[in-house]
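Final paragraph of the annual report: two paired records, presented back to back.
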Amino acid sequence: MSWIAISGQGRAWVCPERFGTNAEARNVLLPRGSIMIETRLSPEGRPQTLLSYERGYPWHGSIAVRAVPGGGIVLVMSQGEDVFHTVLQHRHDARTDVVRVTFCWDSEARFGRIAVESPESDAVVVQDTPAPPPMLLEDVYTLVRRPQLIEMDRDVVFFAVSDRIEPIGPMPSLVGQAPVLTPTGYRPVRTLKCGDTVLTRDHGTVPVLARVERQVPALGSFQPVRLRAPYFGLRHDLVVAPHQRLVIGGSEVEYIFGREQVLIPALSLVNGFAALYEEGARLVRYHQLLLPGHEPVVSASAQLETLYVGRLRRRRDHVAQTLLTEVPRNLMPEHARAGLKVLRPFEAITLAEARAA
């Protein structure tokens, strides 16, 4: 099992198999797990209570996660007389609108970790913590199903709880059935593995070093986006994560932006005609390919960025916290950004309209 509770964007779900039908079944400790909170940063720079709850039965317990001005996340937890406190400082980039905070704990292993990620960039700040106390399963239930008992800032997009240590770092962004061009034709990305090859437009045949996959809540920066054909040369609709980027070239690009190619995040195209958000799913499983030089793949005739890892291989402690922990060190590449301009939403829509015309 993984995600056991999700709250946000009108949803309040708990896994019936895990929580049972009565409170007595929920008065057990959750010795291992993760809490993920995605929030918009306050434009006024005010303090934000991302999630806060306190109870008195069957013993005193509480959890409070707060964002403070200047780029700090403060976490305080208690179970009985056991009190846990940690602070993570991260760089507050005024251009970043959304951050994702993930707190993981394993009480038996006496392990804790808090991380802040920016879905809009590759920025990750992570810090190990002293051993935190376990959460009570009833607390998780209350956080999701009894909103009148908790405090949560209006800018929180969603939060979710997993009973596993969730990975951080580079994330996949293609649904499993997304077609990827290979020397033998298109294949669903979920069927590709290390040793297979893909066919690219500018780099010929390229080997697949690894394929990573992850199931996540279908909310916020994970909510699937449907890219609609025939915009940007798509032969058919394509469903991707919001921050999957398309590599776009052509005469319109050169005329409007003075560049041979630009990058467009899928979310920048969401306007009702070029792309729209997919509704209804609770969870979504994304896949992505690791290639030697971060080459774009061809999918439904469009070019899509693949997994970018930068110089992650030089930090083995961080690799172990990501989806790439099983990739042999000799296969882990180092990537350099191509330096292409990333279009802002109004620029992306302008280009989409120009191509539609």
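The closing record of the year follows.
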Amino acid sequence: MLDITDATLGQMYEQLYLGWKVTVPAGVCPPVGVGGHIAGGGYGPLSRKFGLSVDHLYGVEIVVVDRSGQARTIVATARPNDPHRDLWWAHTGGGGGNFGFVTKYLFRTPGATGDDPGKLLPTPPPTLFMTWVSYPWDGLTQEGFLRLVKNHNAWHAAHSAPGDPYEGLHGALHLNTEKFIYLEIRTDATMPDARKMLDDYIAAVSAGVGVTPQISTTDDLWLANATLEFPQTIPPRTKSKGSYLRKPLADRQIVELYRGLRDPAYKGQCLVYFAGYGGQVNAVGPNATAVPQRDSILKLWFSASWPNAADDEESVDWVRRFYQRVFADTGGMPVPGDRYDGCYINYPDIDSKDPAWNRSGVPWSTLYYKQSYPRLQRIKAKYDPNNTFRHALSIEPAAG
């Protein structure tokens, strides 16, 4: 078992790799804190190959508060005979700030044997191809935009099953309000025919788009790439929303994305981010962890940012209406069903509780947790009976 305490993702990657040449599949942003990222499920560029962060979570050390107000420390593990196993399970996607203060995470890949740290977690590829494909907005028509997003979505629909030959390739499409749309790709350079697979992927996404993309590929050491902080100029005010996609977006929805991103009335920045998903994420059953979304092809993130507090109301209203138009067919939210599978708790959105924005009639708890929610409520009542740990989207204790 390896324990990581009070660390960022970048620090975790560095410690694990330099120490034992292993990693936990997690997010792409090195400054993100391990604590909340893991508790919400955790995913990133290696998830198609190795699954979610919580698929490698063996245990948690956590401070809880009992009914009398007394604090105590518990170590809860995945061992079948652990009396606190349900508390471990709650941290495999139940979200942060619900049950207590996590002071330590213990990682061990299921099926790993022995006590050699170099064999307890996945080994990342030592090198990868880091590729940026840039599509200029100048010359990109609505029809070309539609083709680009459809190509990307369709490729992932065809290549998101466990064991797919492309599991070692992670592609993220950045639709934004800047001068270029970006396709960000990380490819395991050690795969047989890795360069051809990369080229074929770019060709499939770019086919018929109508503009000539600029392509830049570098050979990176995995650790250097995983801990690299890309320069960003994001304004400080922001609102995010997310969803899981089981199927590609419909043409109508893609046209709404185009209209929103080209809306001259919005003065801030907006990013609609399609992250490659599936692969080994979808090899795990929906009840094995507290993350029930286990057959999606993409994870979708809306992020609007603006510089001035004076523009808060207008900017928040804009992104709310943008998102609601995209999911208008299901009441403004990606209701679990044939096409969508709800929301990701690490992209928390208080609008899911507001009937003005969630017109689906489906509770926020179902959007995030689906069938896992009643079990999470029972665990909450057991370990936090006074609801000491709570926030705007916290789990509500089961009545009893």
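The longest helix spans residues 142-158. This concludes the annual technical report; the extension proposal builds directly on these records.
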